Amino acid sequence: MSHHLFLLSPSDTPLYSLTHFSTKPSQTVPSPLSANLPSWSTSAFAGTLTALSGASSVVQASTQGGGVRMGGGQDRHVIQMIANASLDVIEEVVRRDNGMYLKSVDKFNEWTVSAFVTPGNMKFVLLHEGKNEEGIRAFFTEVWELYVKVRTMLNPFHTAHNAIVSSVFDGRVRASARKYL
Amino acid sequence: MSSHPPPSRFSLLSPTNTSARFSLPSAPSITTATTGTPKPLSRPNIYDRPLNKTRTAEVSASAFAFLFSEVVQYMQKRVSGINDLERRLNTLGYRIGTRVLELMVWRTESLSKAPKREIRFLPALMSIHTNVWKAVFGKPADAIEKSVQNEDEYMIIDNDPVVTRNISVPRDMSQLSCSSFTAGIVEAVLDGLGFPARVTAHNTPVNDFPLRNTILIKLEKSVLEREELFK
């Protein structure tokens, strides 16, 4: 079961992203649509196509595949697209929901999108499968603290629009992902 | 009190006297102990530091006054006029405001189960008047006013602003308000919360308060339209 985290600046520039493979068992339900789709790919977009149609069990014989099973919905570009698409929904919810943690704002095939919006309008977007509300809440709270530290410990070398490249930040986020997700 | 120094001196001397011979072998063990601690030169990581406010972390007002005076001097050499200077002070405040907002809300909300943000304008303005002012200047602002002529204008009034307490503006620059710095902070906080506005500072002295300053907030149209929808 994998998780994808994106940190986006107030102007929606991606500042940081993380893919985390959880060791905890997943309870995803395979989409019935996937069985009806051919497993061969004819064009460069076939992967995207199968992914969008909900096929998560298609084995792609792509160049980066090798022996690794690349589920259609696990493709990097598809993940990014789902995350981007959810931003519209987040923008809408942010205006009327006064909580920072917005649970399950959007759903796409097997993916659920949860988000966390800081007071400074920084968005944390997490794509996950299955339900884990409390864990995600705790995870977001820790990421928030780390983010406040990277941003606000009067660090003059960081503004809202710089990508976060700190290896310590990365390590800490990974550690809390292992802990909660 | 007078009996205190002798015992302590004795206690310091007696071990060195008795173990004078072993001072050489014992010396290396001390040095290894100091080098044994992991990298004394490496700076503490900012991620290990707690973010909560402590008494000892507060800075004296004079340190700030000196720093701010240097800031104004530095900028004055590099600008073409009063407007330019005010704009620069505003930009400087903006950068601080974004940080103040995140840190301030983190301090109050991070322990709660469901942290909240302000989504309505008036509560947000109230929180600037009290919370932001307290976090930055240690006291709430003195008043909030709404403009009678223009419904998109709000004012935050400070009778004795900390920022300009030690500043006397020369007569030929009487238009200048160094509180533009504060205006920048307010603008950043409003922007962060999703209420884009143009914020400026104006000197509005009255008899009792010669330093009285008004922070004028001119909201963007979209904010007013959204507030209408909430009603």
Automatic annotation (TrEMBL), chain A:
Protein name: Transport protein particle complex subunit
One Pfam family per UniProt: Sedlin_N
InterPro entries: Longin-like_dom_sf, Sedlin
Natural source organism: Multifurca ochricompacta
GO cellular component: cytoplasm
GO BP of this protein: endoplasmic reticulum to Golgi vesicle-mediated transport
PANTHER family per the UniProt record, alphabetical: TRAFFICKING PROTEIN PARTICLE COMPLEX SUBUNIT 2
Superkingdom of origin: Eukaryota
UniProtKB/TrEMBL annotation, chain B:
A Pfam family annotated for this UniProt entry: TRAPP
Keyword Endoplasmic reticulum annotated: yes
Keyword vocabulary terms for this entry: Endoplasmic reticulum, ER-Golgi transport, Golgi apparatus, Transport
GO biological process: one example: endoplasmic reticulum to Golgi vesicle-mediated transport
Bias kind Polar residues: ranges: 21-37
Localization (cell): Endoplasmic reticulum; Golgi apparatus, cis-Golgi network
Membrane-spanning parts: none
Region described as Disordered: 21-48
A GO CC term attached to the entry: TRAPPII protein complex
Stated family: Belongs to the TRAPP small subunits family. BET3 subfamily.
Subunit structure: Part of the multisubunit TRAPP (transport protein particle) complex.
UniProt protein name: Trafficking protein particle complex subunit
